[in-house]
Amino acid sequence: MPAAPRLPFDPIERASELWVEHIGESRSMRLATSIMRVQQLISSELDAALKPFGITFARYEVLQLISFSAAGRLPLSKIGERLMVHPTSVTNAMDRLETQGLVRRVADQTDRRRTFAELTDQGKHVLGQATDAVMAIDFAVVGLDDEQQDQAFELLKAVRSAAGDF
Amino acid sequence: MPAAPRLPFDPIERASELWVEHIGESRSMRLATSIMRVQQLISSELDAALKPFGITFARYEVLQLISFSAAGRLPLSKIGERLMVHPTSVTNAMDRLETQGLVRRVADQTDRRRTFAELTDQGKHVLGQATDAVMAIDFAVVGLDDEQQDQAFELLKAVRSAAGDF
User: Do the beta carbons of residue B136 and residue B81 sit within 8 Å?
Assistant: First the structure.
C-alpha cells in the first residue's frame, strides 16, 4: 500500500503536539507510532527489492534460515520458533515456496511426526540473488550511521526482552 | 497471530551470528529484523487492548485524529495524509467505523468532491475508553525508560526522514 506523498512537516511530531495539547504526555505514543511507521517503510522497500524473485521478505527469511542450518535442512517447528511466527505462517510460507520450486519437504525417517525443510538448487540460486538485492539497499535501514544502527538495535532489544521474546 | 514461546536465547542475535559466519556484516539485517519484530509485538498488544471496544489500533488512530481537529471534523484526504496511509485504507477504516456507529461522513456544502469525517457521541465515548486502555499499557512500549524512549524516537525519526516521510 503506497504511502501519501512527503509532507512539509513530520506528521508524528504533529500528532505528538496535539496529544500533549489534548491529553498529556506523548512519549510512548509517538515511539509506538514511529516503530509502526518505520516497519511499514522497511517492509515495503524490502518486499519491492525482492519482488523480481517472486518472494516476500517473510519468505526470504525462511530460505535464509534453512540455508544457515549445518545439515542443510531444518524441522518446520524450528523455523517458526526462530522466526517467532506461528506454525500456520510457516506452513503457508513453505506451501508458497514449495509451489515455486524453491524448497522441498522431507519426511524424518526416525520421527514420522517431524518434517524437514530443504532448499532446492533453484532455491539456493534465488536466495543468493535475493541476498544481493537486500544487501544492495542495506536492508532499507536508511539515515543512520553504524553506531546509530547499533544503538537502535540495543534499544529495541530491550523492548523485545521486556516483552518476553527471550 | 501469536508468537512462539519465549526462547532461552535471542533468535535475532543468533541469526545475526549466523549471518556474520556465512555472509558478512549483519548490522542492518539485525536492525531491520528487530524493527519488524517490535512492530509485531506492539501491534499485537495494542490490538488486544482495544479488542473490548471492537476496534484495531489503525481505527483508533482515525478516531483520535478526528477528535484532535479544531472543527471537530476532518476531510478524508487529510486523514490519509496525516496517518501516512493509502486513501483506500482510510475508506475501509471509515466504512467499519461508520457501521459501528462511531463516525459519520458529512458532505462538504462548499465543495461536493470533499467529504468530512466526524465522531458520533458514541465514537467520542469509545475513543475516551480506548485511550485509557492504550495509556494503561503505555502503548506497549516496554523495557525503556523515558530517556531511552526519546533516543529510540529520534533514531527512528532519522530513518523516516531519510526515507522521505517529511
Answer: no
Q: Chain B within 8 Å of A162 (Cβ-Cβ)?
A: yes
Rounded to 5°, the CA angle B37-B92-A36 comes to: 20
C-alpha cell at B31: 536492525
- Cβ distance B26 to B16 under 8 Å? yes
Does residue A65 contact residue A82 with C-beta atoms inside 8 Å? yes
- Using only C-alpha atoms, chain B has a radius of gyration, in whole angstroms, of 20
B83-130 pLDDT, tens per residue?
A: 999 999 999 999 999 999 999 999 988 988 899 999 999 999 999 999
Question: Which pLDDT band, with edges at 50, 70 and 90, does A4 fall under?
Answer: low
Q: Using an 8 Å Cβ cutoff, are A143 and B159 in contact?
A: yes
**How far apart, in whole angstroms, are the C-alpha atoms of residue A69 and residue A81?**
14
Cell 467505523 belongs to residue: B97
Instruction: Give the residue from A69, A51, A40 showing the smallest Cα distance to A129.
Output: A51
Among candidate residues A89, A83, A82, A94, the one with its CA nearest the CA of residue A120: A94
Nearest CB to A38; choose among B18, B67, B156: B156
Does residue B17 sit at the A interface (CB-CB below 8 Å)? Answer: no
What is the rounded CA–CA span in Å between residue A22 and residue B71?
Answer: 14
The Cα B28–Cα A142 span in angstroms is: 9
Q: Which chain A residues have a beta carbon less than 8 Å from that of B140? A: 32, 163
pTM of the model: 0.94
